[in-house]
C-alpha cells in the first residue's frame, strides 16, 4: 500500500485531458459496471470521491483475491500485479497499482507529463482489441469475445457497444 503519497490537482475533475486521450468511461462508471474482479481501490477509498463507491462492485474489503462474478462480463481478464511489475507496466513511485490508479488520479486532475504520456500510449494501444471485436463479432453481440470486452472495460473503453 502506498502511504503518504501527495500530489497536486492541476486540472478540474474530468477536464483538460490530453487531446489524444478520450476514455469512454469515467472511473465511477467503471467501478459501477464491474472491473478487476472488484479488487481495485478497496484500501485507498479516502483518496477518491465517496460517490465512486456508492454502487461500485467491490470484493469484500480485508479479503484476499478477487471475484470475477463482479466483472461486467463475469470473466477473468486481468493478469496478476506481479506480471505487470515484471513487464515494467507499473510506476511504483507514482501509481503502484497500475493504469487504473493512474487514470483515477488523472481524472481527478493530477498531471505528470512524462507518466501521462506513457500511460496514454498504453491506453491507445488497446484500440487493437476494438478492431478484433469489430472484425470477428456481429454488431451488438456482446457475448462474442467476452474476455477482450472485459479487458477493454478495464481500460475505460465501453465494449458493450461495438
Can you give a write-up of this model?
- The protein is built from six helices and no strands.
- The chain is mainly α and 162 residues long.
- It has one domain.
- The model has no long low-confidence stretch (mean pLDDT 91).
Could you tell me the number of beta strands?
A: 0
State the share of residues found in helices, binned by percent: 25-40%
Summed up, the helix count is: 6
Q: What composes the largest sheet?
A: none
Beta content:
under 5%
Distance linking N and C termini: 36 Å
What is the domain total for the residues?
1
Structural class: mainly alpha
Gyration radius (Cα, Å) is 15 Å
- Give unreliable regions as ranges: none
- The topology string of helices and strands comes to HHHHHH
Write down the overall geometry: globular
Mean pLDDT: 91
Give me a quick take on this structure.
The protein has 162 residues and is mainly alpha-helical. The protein is 34% helix and 0% strand.
